[in-house]
């Protein structure tokens, strides 16, 4: 794509000079950087760097989308369709406390220092790999969530992020979540696709927690089957910060995911819970890494996946306790349930321990449904299909039960049942 297309897009979005310069610097190094490494997943031929940025103004297709709504009772919400923000709602009480829920490009003007200081500076470095550099250069949409110090938000902050695949357009979206010192809130993302035009998706989510902050982060990923997706989620935790992740990876397209937690502060904690289902000929590779940088930090990973048909699902769990991170704890569990003998599943635990006086452990397995469990349920009068359904639900249950909002929990169950080929209740 010619450089002037980026410049035109940036001009229409009224981007500040510092952001345009960051685009240009990122674009200049894309070809000099290596792709990310996802063990046992071959993705180098995937079309992950699409260059159509789409319209930089609200066009007719976006104007008809407010029908895509979030529960009116939710006090903080934002909806984006393609690269356009089509709805924002924020209660006055939260505005008065300084909470921000906003389009990324609008925030660059309204809160320039906040964005400049935090956008790809602490979480995901621009030059980490060629896909992160591409992301910064061709970024065409995003949102900002900011909760100031000592503010507690009682109800979840919800984002509905919709890929517009009714046209040829890259889905290069950035989510920047900043938790001030001792803040408390829950943030929920719902990802989906409208249309069936093949597109790439390059998504970066940065979760930056200052000292003492506590965030519950839930994501329901349901992007369409005609996508090739790079999804990078990164949390950066200062002293005594705590993040709890619950991710339902129900995407239909080919995906490589990089879900990381950097425990940079003393006593910081990250608990990552992921469920994923692959089907058809889909390829899903997920790297989940926790790096214990500070003493007495805690990083736990739980990954459960189901593979069907001729698909591939790879879980790479990486726990790294660095030198001087004494008293730290790194635990991981990766399990894959095979529903087809033509599918391929990998659960690869990796522990890197550079310090004494620590606790670390891992568990990994790939197997089929337990015949004894099926026999027991069938002996109680259930059909084989319902028995399998309940076993799978139980296998994925820890992540399902960790979602606090009933509506979101029901939506994940619906997505699981749909991907498994069961009729909706």
From TrEMBL:
SUF system FeS cluster assembly SufBD core domain: residues covered: 167-395
Coiled-coil annotated spans: none
SUF system FeS cluster assembly SufBD N-terminal domain mapped to chain residues: 92-157
InterPro entries on file: Fe-S_cluster_assembly_SufBD, SUF_FeS_clus_asmbl_SufBD_core, SUF_FeS_clus_asmbl_SufBD_sf, SUF_FeS_clus_asmbl_SufD, SufBD_N
A Pfam short name: SUFBD_core
GO terms of biological process kind: iron-sulfur cluster assembly
Family listed: Belongs to the iron-sulfur cluster assembly SufBD family.
Name of the featured protein: Fe-S cluster assembly protein SufD
Chain's gene name: sufD
